[in-house]
Amino acid sequence: MLFQKMGLCWRALGLLCTVSLALCFNLEPLMHHAFPYPYQDQQGREAYFGFSVALQHSEEGGGANWVLVGAPRANSSLSGKQDIPEPGAVFSCSLAGDTCEELHVDANSDRKVVKDHGWLGGSLDTQPDFQSNRQATCVCAPLCKFRYRKKIYMNGACYIAKDSLSSATFVEELPLENRGKQRSSKAIPGTDRGETIYIYGYGQAGFSTHFPDDPTKLVVGAPGVYHWNGSAILFQDVMDVPDPGARKRREVPIEDEEDVPDPGARKRREVPIEDESVPDPGARKDGRCH
Ligand SMILES: *[C@@H]1O[C@H](CO)[C@@H](O)[C@H](O)[C@H]1NC(C)=O
Ligand SMILES: *[C@@H]1O[C@H](CO)[C@@H](O)[C@H](O)[C@H]1NC(C)=O
Asked: Which residues form the signal peptide (predicted)?
């Protein structure tokens, strides 16, 4: 009787295992497909092809799937970019074939944006919530610099496309571009000297990037903000602004990890810097329209 019961128990357990196996994410390693670095023949030093990856889908033309691959040290082959030393590149590789094509994500040629060694493709992500081609993509160049009047600071740049259609164009976002917030100085206690504090100066926005399930949000890591204490920047696609034609993307620097799960609250702590020249951290910067 006891064994009968145990047998039943084992069978139930076996069934449970089978069900959980069926629900598992079982990858078949032998069926993999490897994409070689497309610019191998003209390569100098290593380009780090594959440093970042993301899958993308479009329903256009009967449906297509591809993988976006970042090569943050690559030399670009695109016109207008061939003279820039190692700006980094992002490739779109078709899952139906072997072909990879370099994407022109940073087509804007703002001369204030210094792209050499900028690590374009150092991070990238696509929206998980795919709905009739509205799969946004974010590609970042965390070591991209911005030229201010006299100085150049490593603010980082991200490029965002709002859908996965072939006509999609990327819009440049420079969340840390702010002349007054690059650096500050702090008195060294007990001396008459001061110390430079880099607020946004080496912020490196785009070191990491993530689209959460909420289709109106995007989070970008900026480990160099507040003198390398680091920060995360939340982009919020504001759809309910009074003028329906002007959908603005707001940027909210987050100082505390706890603020990330509930960005709707947009709570921010004071910046712990004893310097009056630090602008009000509550002041939000409005981004471009999308
Ligand atoms: C990029 O081009 C420069 C100059 O030709 C070369 O020295 C460097 O190794 C190249 N880098 C890559 C990743 O191919
Ligand atoms: C960085 O963090 C330290 C330790 O919490 C703090 O003392 C310092 O003021 C912070 N620096 C900046 C620039 O926020």
From this structure: 1-24
CA–CA separation, 134 vs 127, rounded Å? 8
**87, 56 Cβ separation under 8 angstroms:** no
Provide the 10 A C-beta neighbour count for residue 276: 7
| Domains of the chain, each with CATH number or no CATH | 34-275 (2.130.10.130)
Strand order in the sheet with 152-153: 113-114, 145-147, 152-153
Cα distance between residue 193 and residue 17, in whole Å: 67
Query: pTM, whole model, 2 decimals?
Result: 0.77
**Pocket-forming residues, ligand 2, beta carbon under 6 Å:** 197, 226-227, 229, 271-273
Whether 255 is in the pocket of ligand 1, judged by its Cβ within 6 Å, is no
- What does the pLDDT look like over 188-214, one tens digit per residue? 999 999 999 999 999 999 999 999 998
